[in-house]
Amino acid sequence: MTDWEASKIVQRYIDKRHGADDLLPVEKRLLPAVLAKHSVVLDVGCASGGMYNMMRSLKPDLRYVGVDISATAINYALRRYPGVGFLNADAASLPFEDGAFAFVHSRGLLCHAEDWRAPLREMLRVADSEVMVDIRLCAQAYVRPHGKIPAPMVFVRQSDFEGELTETTFCQADVVKRGAGGDNPYEEAVYLVSV
Q: What does the domain layout of the chain look like in residue ranges?
């Protein structure tokens, strides 16, 4: 059993974030326009599959595949949403061909990946058109040891993150939250990237 399997965060996503009312303001603002253009979506870090139901409320004919490192969460998603493509997979090594998905979505994953570059590169690799990710940006990169969840909180310099996007053609960033990280305040930003 991995740390993710034993964590309270798996239960949190089983209990919450499954309905259209659970969409966050930035998701309500960005997802309708993105989903209007794309019918095939990969959700990286899908937890128990709630984003499938939220996206489906915006686009009923959506073809969706969700991946997560937690087998517990994936098993729950398969039971809750039978017939939907959920896979237990590592975001740093996605089992898909280059450009397999028109739209790749990931929220709440990179902020827990000490090697955030590997999953980001994989998402960009398997995307054919657009990628939506969130990241915590600050002036000085650092890693805060884990507390309530079994992973650290990763804070990245904006120039380092945007340096990874050199092969992309368009990037929109929305700041959705500001926080205090001791002497190093941060912003949580959602990026919509065209590849």
A: 3-194
pTM summary value = 0.89
Q: What dihedral angle (degrees, nearest 10) is formed by the CA atoms of 161, 164, 167, 173?
A: -10
**Rounded to 10 degrees, what is the CA torsion of 98, 141, 138, 126?**
0
- Which class for 139: exposed (0-12), middle (13-18), buried (19 or more C-beta within 10 A)? middle
One-letter amino acid at 112 equals H
158, two tokens: 């904006």
- Cα-based distances in Å from 26 to 107, 176, 179: 11, 7, 17
Distance of alpha carbon 65 from alpha carbon 90, whole angstroms: 14
State pLDDT tens for residues 171-191: 788 888 777 656 667 888 889
SS3 content of the chain, % helix, strand, coil (to 5): 35, 30, 35
Q: How many Cβ atoms from other residues are within 10 Å of residue 6's Cβ?
A: 12
Question: Kind of pairing, strands 186-194 and 63-68?
Answer: unpaired
For 122-159, how does the pLDDT look when each residue is reduced to its tens digit (9 = 90+)?
A: 999 999 999 999 988 888 787 877 555 556 778 888 88
Question: Which numeric CATH code is attached to 3-194?
Answer: 3.40.50.150
141 touches 156 (CB < 8 A): yes
Running DSSP on this structure, what letter comes out for residue 91?
T
